[in-house]
Amino acid sequence: MKNEISKAERTRQLIIEKTAGIFNTKGYAGTSLSDLTDATGLTKGSIYGNFENKEEVALACFDYNLAKINTAVQQLISEAGSFTDKLLVYTRAYHSMTGIEFPEGGCPILNTAVDADDTNNLLKDRVAKAILAWKKRLIDLIKGGIEAGEFTADTHPEQLALSLIALIEGGIMIAKATNSPNSLNKVLKTVEFLIRHQKS
Question: Which UniProt keywords apply (predicted)?
Answer without folding.
Answer: DNA-binding, Transcription, Transcription regulation
